[in-house]
Amino acid sequence: MSLSVAIRAKRFGPALVLRDMVFQVARGEVLAVRGPSGVGKSTLLRIIAGLDSGFDGQVRRHGRLAMVFQEPTLLPWRSARDNLRLTTGVDAAQAEAALARVGLSGKGALYPGQLSLGQQRRLSLARAYAARPDILLLDEPFVSLDADLVEDMLTLTESVIVEQRPATVFVTHAQAEADRLATRQMVLTLAADRGGVREGAGVRG
Question: Which parts of 1-64 fold into alpha helices (H)?
Fold first, then answer.
């Protein structure tokens, strides 16, 4: 099992954000996580990635991990090509191939500030896919892309999952995206009768 998660409780001060979440994701599986804004989806991904250790529970990760954040996390003083190479270890030719695969052919020498937000998101996706991770975390990776580009990126993501078979956790608001990519789905809900506690509503698929 590439990923095993058991979160008894996650709090921000007195506020209970996540609780009683237990699930596993194996190589080749895609778990889609849905729910309203502010319910704790991104917090869950940060816990899985090891970026937030302030919770009660345990996460076991096996292998290399890559994460695509809601906002592109790029080095503004490095070119698109270098942003990709520095974290993945690929050579220049592999970097150019990875850029071309997300529609950024010929953009390798440009800096993030010279790219549109949509292009920056594609660069973030290219960097994650080029890393060939065992665990892939995607936090609403297609937000702000136009419909045609979302289709292209969904097709690319499908091919990456088939080729590389990472254990994938995919946060999205779009039911259609979840239905297309996921082998299982989990919905996080706000339990109004429990003072705003956020909790998993189950896994299906």
Answer: 41-49
User: Within this chain, do residues 113 and 90 fall inside the same structural domain, yes or no?
Assistant: yes
Q: Is residue 115 part of a domain?
A: yes
Look at residue 195 in the predicted model and tell me its pLDDT: 33
**Neighbour count for residue 74 (Cβ, 10 Å):** 20
Split the chain (205 residues) into runs of 10 and give each run's mean pLDDT. Answer: 91 90 95 91 95 95 91 89 89 91 91 90 90 94 82 90 94 92 92 40 41
The Cα 159–Cα 22 span in angstroms is 28
Nearest-angstrom CA–CA distance, 99 and 132: 15
CB-based burial of residue 91 (10 Å sphere; 0-12 exposed, 13-18 middle, 19+ buried)?
Answer: exposed
User: What value, to the nearest 5°, has the Cα angle with vertex 204 and ends 203 and 205?
Assistant: 135
**Residues 196, 160 share a domain:** yes
CA angle (73, 138, 129) in 5-degree steps: 75
Q: Could you tell me the pTM of the whole model?
A: 0.87
Provide the domain count of the chain. 2
Q: How far apart are CA 139 and CA 90, in angstroms?
A: 24
Sheet holding 167-171, edge to edge: 65-68, 135-139, 167-171, 30-34, 184-191, 197-204
Q: How far apart are CA 41 and CA 35, in angstroms?
A: 7
d(CA 34, CA 189): 9
